[in-house]
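We modelled the chain as a single entity of 142 amino acids. Its sequence is:
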Amino acid sequence: AVASDALEAFLLRECRLARGGPPDEAGRAEGPALYRRGRACGYATLVITGEVKVFAGRDGFESIHGPWSLLGRRCLELHQGCPLGGGTSATAPAFVPDFTAYTAEERDGPADGTRLLLIAAEAYARLLASVGPQATGPLLSI
């Protein structure tokens, strides 16, 4: 298990609370999409409040993900080495989503606001590595 102080430090230093899309290197929003189908990314997104609309498949089938939904879980799994092995950016396969996702207000106009926790996959892998070999599964499970 991860000590509460290590988890708190991870959340404060390594994760980013955001509204809307992921930030670029300078901290500015890249655009309205959280994920774009076919475009590699290095983070997962935990929906804290509000909704995220996901469009998947050739027909863009829409699904809505509310609070405590985790998008991009596979990205975390690839970087922590589960189930493929590896775990660093140099060895982990790239996560390329097969869906496009937007916060609900990006697609439909302002709402009460969507808050997201962006979890960098490399930071997540470092957290698990600090726990050691006793970490047997994902820290974030849904």
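As a brief sanity check on the tokenised model: The beta strands are 15-18, 33-35, 43-49, 52-56, 61-65, 70-71, 99-103, 115-120. DSSP finds four helices and eight strands in the chain.
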